[in-house]
Amino acid sequence: MSKTRYINKNIIECPADRVIDNIPSPFLTRCSPYVTQTFNSKVDMLLNNIADCTMMSKIIVIGDVSVGKTCLVNRFCKKIFDGNYKATIGVDFEVENFLILNVPFSLQIWDTAGQERFKSIAQSYYRGASAVVIVFDLTKPESLHNCHTWLMEASQTFSAKTPYLFVVGTKRDLVKTYAYMNIEECAIRVATKLNAEYWSISSKTGKNVDNLFRRLAALTFQECVKRELEGKRFKEIGNDIVALQPKTTQKRGNCATKCKN
Q1: Which residues is 217 bridged to in the sheet?
Q2: Closest Cα partner for 139 from 191, 174, 167, 181?
């Protein structure tokens, strides 16, 4: 028997690379704490109970100065690469639209400044992030060692639930094979210690950039749907998920108008 798929009337046209039906694979399976590669069955059931809507999640991109945060965001969002360094002042953000399981989904990508003088401004935007992308430069090992500090500072804004954590090495095109093998092993150890998923990308060539953001979109979308389930709007009954109707309060009549002597 074919499976009934929820149809959302607000569906928007998306390029093929923004349409997602399964959770994309990690860069290296052994370097990810997020093992699932299929959407949770509850997600599929819940979508049939959600009114036509557009869902949204927020990710923040943090890391040292000039490690390539803005180049990474621009490569994905604008399909461009500019090798001339321009410092981010405070924060910039982009919004990318996806169609995930036939549901419109918007991913807010917040690109933060790495300079010390802008940290307090940038940190005010960390709150509410569904994923944190900690960027380091594969040609600068010291930027990898600073990933722990960046995470500790960001974690001060986390709620009870820790967001998805990613450690992303940039400028893969500038590192020769032998040197890359050494830095990658160090990066994997750092990511494992931080309980984060490791990725290696090149913003210049575009290698792995789309795959990274597609995975971020899929994981944060699933988390967004789960939050709906954890709220009071839905309840599990057996193997089904049903929408709860809000209680209507009945006004009490004035006894003087209802009672007669």
Answers
A1: none
A2: 174
Q: Is the pLDDT of residue 178 over 50?
A: yes
Residue 1 lies in a domain: no
Q: Rounded mean pLDDT of 144-173?
A: 94
Residue 117 belongs to a domain with what CATH number? Answer: 3.40.50.300
Six-digit token pair at 145? 């060692």
Is pLDDT above 70 for 233? Answer: no
pLDDT digits (tens, 9 = 90+) for 102-121: 899 999 999 987 665 556 66
Q: Above 80 in pLDDT, residue 221?
A: yes
The CA–CA distances, whole Å, from 174 to 125, 179, 232 equal: 32, 10, 51
Note the pLDDT of residue 227.
Answer: 80
**Coil vs helix vs strand at 35:** coil
In a domain, 143, yes or no: yes
The number of distinct structural domains making up the chain is 1
Is the backbone of residue 208 left (phi > 0), alpha (psi -120 to 50) or beta? left
249 located within any domain: no
Number of H helices, E strands in the chain: 8, 9
Q: Which residue, among 68, 110, 114, has the nearest Cα to 220 in the 3D structure?
A: 110
Q: Are 73 and 83 in contact (CB under 8 A)?
A: no
Q: What pLDDT is recorded for position 203?
A: 97
Contact between 256 and 57 (Cβ < 8 Å): no
Res 222 pLDDT > 60: yes
Parent domain of 162: 16-232
| Collapsed DSSP state (helix, strand, coil) of residue 156 | coil
Task: Decide if 140 is inside a domain.
Answer: yes
